[in-house]
Amino acid sequence: MTTRLLLTADTHLTPRYPRRELPAELWEQVDAADAVVHAGDWMDPTLLDALERRATRLVACWGNNDGEELRARLPETAVADVDGLRLAVTHETGATDGRERRCDARFGPGGTTPVDVLVFGHSHIPWDSTTPGGVRLLNPGSPTERRRQPACTYMTAAVRDGALVAVERHDLAPAPTSRRP
């Protein structure tokens, strides 16, 4: 059996940007996924409500731009078992330099929260690496705010027999068709 994951972060939906919406392609992936992983910076609790309604399973945390309501509903770091794969999601892992070492200290074998995969956000820069201790680090980028990246992004992944067997980064068109939930 294969479990399909949708990985996203940094959606930054807020009344300050009333035209910003999640791309239709991302909503299609939400509907197709067995689990949705969101690595924080929602900024709008209505998006959390919509994902809780639509996602089969949601594993999520709050980010540095999320207010009190989101922080009351979400953990700073969420840990879940996804068909035998131990997965954590947190918003921020610090600077690029030393990231693998810091993540191994906390999430690697012998760390305080050992996991197989850590999904994180904050930078809006897609990232896929493996620490020396064997923890897979994934940052899906942002589906709504590309910053200095060539495109807005998200990731999909697959879990089979307790292992991550596929990770794919998806680049969104510069002006994706959008709709609110």
From TrEMBL:
Assigned protein family: Belongs to the metallophosphoesterase superfamily. YfcE family.
Enzyme category, top tier: hydrolase
Coiled-coil region(s): none
Needed cofactors: a divalent metal cation
Organism: Actinomycetospora aeridis
UniProt keyword terms in alphabetical order: Metal-binding
Gene3D superfamilies the UniProt entry points to: 3.60.21.10
EC number: 3.1.4.-
InterPro entries attached to this UniProt entry: Calcineurin-like_PHP_lpxH, Metallo-depent_PP-like, Phosphodiesterase_MJ0936/Vps29
The protein's name in its UniProt record: Phosphoesterase
Pfam families in the record: Metallophos_2
Domain Calcineurin-like phosphoesterase positions: 5-161
